């Protein structure tokens, strides 16, 4: 089975703070979700499901800059305000296994589906950079975060309609995916136009991830 749809997340990675916290949060836009399932029926109405899915979300750099400006001015900043730019998007992968059920809803090929899957979640973090002019000198800094992984889950329910003959099924589903992962390190590359200093900070950054996934898809039932 394969499904495509959208994912909405407001708890993706960087902390809106002037401090170097141990957490990342925020700044992901609504994006695209896909998943591929392989299901084996153990007994009538109960099976086991293997799922590989991905979520692609762009980075809401406008909100980051707005919140950074508030922090900048509230902590006494003045003069040229650095503006962040983002490169790349989030890709969050989930590789999950768990039970699933399929219960007929009367006659006509309609049934109710549900799943509870658990396994591995991986996530990258888009690159961030800022620059500003200081007495005619361009100051810039680029940040990159090492990819993370951790325990993840995905629970959901939906409807299935089996076409006449029973070989092809059409699916409409809603699922909630989550994870708590830790980025192991990040790197800062600071430049004053003449020299560049690159420093890696081995400071783990935790991130709580929550995604609402709405999908439509099709299956082949063998």
Number of strands: 14
**What overall form do the CA principal axes indicate?**
elongated
Largest sheet: 8 strands, antiparallel, barrel
Number of helices: 1
Regarding CATH, which class? Mainly Beta
Average pLDDT level: 85
Q: What name does the CATH topology carry?
A: Porin
Structural class: mainly beta
The H-and-E topology, N to C, reads as EEEEHEEEEEEEEEE
Terminal CA distance: 11 Å
Identify the quaternary structure here: single chain
Strand order in the largest sheet: 1-3-4-6-7-10-11-14
- When the domains are counted, the total is 1
Low-confidence stretches: 1-20
Question: Compute the gyration radius: what is it?
Answer: 22 Å
What is the CATH architecture descriptor?
Answer: Beta Barrel
General description of the model:
The model is unreliable at 1-20 (pLDDT under 50). The chain is mainly β and 222 residues long. A hairpin with a 5-residue loop joins strand 6 and strand 7 (110-123). The termini are close together. It has one helix at 61-74, and strands at residues 2-8, 23-24, 31-43, 46-57, 83-87, 90-104, 110-123, 127-134, 137-145, 148-162, 168-183, 186-191, 196-201, 205-220. It contains one helix and 14 strands, in the order E-E-E-E-H-E-E-E-E-E-E-E-E-E-E.
